[in-house]
Amino acid sequence: MTSIADIVAEHAHREGPLLPILHDVQKAFGYVSEDAMRDIAQALNLTRAEVYGVVSFYHDFRKEAEARPILKLCRAEACKARGVDALVPIAENQSRVKVEAVYCLGMCSVGPAALVGDQVIARLDATRLSSLLEAM
Amino acid sequence: MTVRISNDAVALACGADAVAAAFAAAGVEVERVSSWGMHWMEPLVDIDGVGYGQVSADQVPSILSGDAKSIGRIEDHPFIAKQNRLTFARAGKTRPTSLDDYYASGGWLGLGQARAIGADATIETIMASGLRGRGGAGFPAGIKWRTVADAPAEQKYIVCNADEGDSGTFADRMVMEGDPFMLIEGMAIAGFAVGASKAYIYIRSEYPHAIAKMEAAIRLSAHLIAPFVVEVRVGAGAYICGEETSLLNSLEGKRGEVRAKPPLPALEGLFGKPTVVNNVLTLAAVPWILAHGGEAYAAYGMGRSKGTMPVQLAGNVKHGGLFEVAFGITLGELVNDIGGGTASGRPVRCVQVGGPLGAYIPPAQFDLPFDYEAFAAADALIGHAGITVFDDSVDMAQMARFAMEFCAIESCGKCTPCRLGSTRGVETIDQIIAGKNVDANLALLADLAETMKFGSLCAMGGFTPYPVMSAIKLFPEDFNR
């Protein structure tokens, strides 16, 4: 298992290493815990408040673990123009998958679109979204 | 027989991998290339230049037997034939991370030319091209480069802003996924011109394919641009980090809060050093300009808007995709002639140009030419040249509310008009939608919009009033009037 210290050591030589460290911590552990923030702060000679301030600023970083699989559904203008708002009830009427809003996946010509891990899915309709959620 | 299928995220999201696998299973070798940009056709199969649109795996046998209907030669398709492809010259034709393909299609000629003529003449070439920042503000790239070049410092930086967060835009993503070496070459030329040894490219986390392709391309080309070094940094889901000073703070490992200007990043940018911050499309245009000359680029376009713009047709549009064209084309030509109107077949009600901060424009104004000055005069914004089309089923009060809501979600919180104004804006529009004191609340909203427009530190709060107020002005009937 990777430790926080390993991750910090890997990036410590870089200019402005905090974001790369936080990305890797979240990748390894699924979230950035208070303990992790304290360790990172100490290693980078920052205050805990500074690290907390960065973690809480960015939508990507989680302060708590999420056990469910995550689907990010684009809710921005171009996907709205293609009918994503009509799909939202399908996402809300289930609880097995955590559905989060994301603002633009660059699929604006083929939306509605979603991101699962590193996989992008476009041309969603009610049927496709339902089967996607069931398969997760 | 050469079968080409794109591995751009749009093609993958529409099922290109399954189609490629079906060809492979039939014993046919498949080249995975960049996307032509005809997104409504994806997955598009290109067999020796002839195209087959919206292909699914079960259609592969009929394509191989010659029974399937083709769209003819892709290059002759009106959507492609009408373009002026300079930045997207390789789109659909080359394998994105193949150095051989890049060399064979004129790659590295721009960097070679820059090294041959020297740093000063390189900046002069960019000046002569009239290239303006493609990220939205339209600031002349040559002047920015000159400022950084003239700033005395041991360390300078190139920062490529690849935090393309505007809905309706995907040209940056297509450059990074389809032609990453061109962007690296553009950064290397900029570094050579201004005397910077290091570049950061800040890519949004919502673009995992772009991140992977850029990292691969940087590894493969490191020896060609040395001693210049390019490093990828990944954003963390904050729209505001597309604003250049916020992006610099994020790169430094801080909250992505906007900085007050001055000092300009060109003089005190990343870690306080002179920094060129250019958008992906700006830097991607540079290799062509160096290889062909500034005058050749300036021969395209109109007025002070020189060269070409990769326009992105998005939203409820029949023929969505990437359309690179010289400035001067009208909005109506783009939406109706090229885009084919709406995908739903209903009438176009309006378009939003330039992302979430751009004004809504109705068909009555479709004679507006694509030109920075013409758009500014119409209180509109070219921005990153994304055009999001809406049909007549759109509720503009909800879109105005969303503009404020988006600003509230994404505001960095540094200045009050943006941080508080956006939340008060949502509340006020909710009152209007509910029919409460409509006239008084509309007046209040107009006042709030003025405060945000003139009191905000950056374009986030400063431009959010444009979509809101244009929606009210154009479609009062949606606001209980």
UniProtKB/TrEMBL annotation, chain A:
It catalyses: a quinone + NADH + 5 H(+)(in) = a quinol + NAD(+) + 4 H(+)(out). One of its GO terms (molecular function) is metal ion binding. Its cofactor is [2Fe-2S] cluster. The keyword NAD does not apply. It comes from the Bacteria. InterPro entries: NADP_DH_HndA-like, NuoE_N, Thioredoxin-like_sf. Gene3D superfamilies: Glutaredoxin, NADH-quinone oxidoreductase subunit E. Signal peptide: none annotated. SUPFAM superfamilies: Thioredoxin-like (SSF52833). Coiled coil: none annotated. The keyword S-adenosyl-L-methionine does not apply. Keywords: 2Fe-2S, Iron, Iron-sulfur, Metal-binding. Belongs to the complex I 24 kDa subunit family. This is Formate dehydrogenase subunit gamma. It comes from Sphingorhabdus rigui.
Automatic annotation (TrEMBL), chain B:
It comes from the Bacteria. SMART domains: NADH_4Fe-4S (SM00928). Keywords: 4Fe-4S, Iron, Iron-sulfur, Metal-binding. Residues 397-442 form the NADH-ubiquinone oxidoreductase 51kDa subunit iron-sulphur binding domain. InterPro entries: NADH-UbQ_OxRdtase_51kDa_CS (IPR001949), Nuo51_FMN-bd (IPR011538), Nuo51_FMN-bd_sf (IPR037225), Nuop51_4Fe4S-bd (IPR019575), Nuop51_4Fe4S-bd_sf (IPR037207), Thioredoxin-like_sf (IPR036249). Its cofactor is FMN. Gene3D superfamilies: 3.10.20.600, NADH-ubiquinone oxidoreductase 51kDa subunit, NADH-ubiquinone oxidoreductase 51kDa subunit, iron-sulphur binding domain. GO terms for molecular function: 4 iron, 4 sulfur cluster binding; FMN binding; metal ion binding; NADH dehydrogenase (ubiquinone) activity. Belongs to the complex I 51 kDa subunit family. This is Formate dehydrogenase iron-sulfur subunit. It comes from Sphingorhabdus rigui.
